[in-house]
Structures are given as structure tokens and as C-alpha cells.
Write a structure and sequence with these properties.
Layout lengths: L13 H9 L7 E2 H12 L3 H17 L2 E6 L8 E3 L7 H14 L11 E4 L3 E2 L4
Parallel strand pairs: 3-5
Antiparallel strand pairs: 1-4, 2-3, 2-4
Length: 127
């Protein structure tokens, strides 16, 4: 029997929520500010369990064609700007994003921080 965490209010399992997070991609980007508190407050996760949740969400987003981005700003020329410094392979991106989040105190993120958007919605600056 598995003891997969269940949402504290709605009762669905974490694996279902991870897919629900990524289901937002056709509509909009998904931010770390949504992922981290979703795991922390929705499922009561902390420590390694929260870190694993964040990894799983990022992996699912990447598997659906998302890339790390930041917003282009209200007056910006581009809605989403790709952040290639996190890497090009899924494992590399996951590790670098999680490492940065942990180094910043594993806090609930801010909407002005890192997001994940579909590749076709992101502008890629020339190197």
C-alpha cells in the first residue's frame, strides 16, 4: 500500500495534483510561486518531501514542452523570456532550479520569479 500524500482539503493524491499543475500550460505559464505553496500548504509537505514535490512538478512541466522563463514585464516586448542558464536537458534544469530554490531558503516564491511556459510562448535571447 502506498502512502502518497493527499490534498488536505480536497483529498486527491499528489500524483494527480502534479498533472493538474501541468494542465495549466495550454492556458498560461506556471510559476514556482504556485508550485511551492501548493505542495507546502495544499499537502502539508516540508523538507525532502516538499523538494521531491517541486522536482516532480518541474519534471511534468518539462515533459509537456515547458521551459524556464521570467515575465517580460507589463511594457515588455515579450510576454515570457526563456532562461537558458538552467540548462537544456530536463534533469539538468530540474537540478539547477531546485538547487537555486533551496539556496534561497526554500521559501514560497514570488510571482515575479521563475515560471515555466510552453516553448512556443517564450522568446529566446541570442547567446
Amino acid at each position: 500500500m502506498t502512502t502518497e500524500p493527499r490534498h488536505l482539503r480536497y483529498g486527491y493524491p499528489l500524483s494527480e495534483w502534479v498533472k493538474m499543475v501541468a494542465n495549466e500550460l495550454p492556458i498560461d505559464a506556471v510559476g514556482m510561486w504556485q508550485i511551492v505553496p501548493g505542495g507546502r500548504h495544499g499537502f502539508g509537505l516540508e523538507g525532502e518531501a516538499l523538494t521531491d514535490c517541486v522536482r516532480r512538478c518541474i519534471a511534468e512541466l518539462l515533459s509537456r514542452g515547458a521551459v524556464p522563463v521570467v515575465g517580460g514585464g507589463l511594457e515588455g516586448e515579450h510576454e515570457w523570456i526563456a532562461q537558458p542558464q538552467y540548462g537544456s536537458k530536463p534533469d539538468e534544469i530540474i537540478e539547477n532550479v531546485v538547487r537555486e530554490w533551496l539556496a534561497n531558503g526554500a521559501k514560497d516564491e514570488d510571482p515575479g520569479g521563475l515560471w515555466f511556459a510552453r516553448r512556443e510562448r517564450a522568446w529566446f535571447p541570442r547567446s
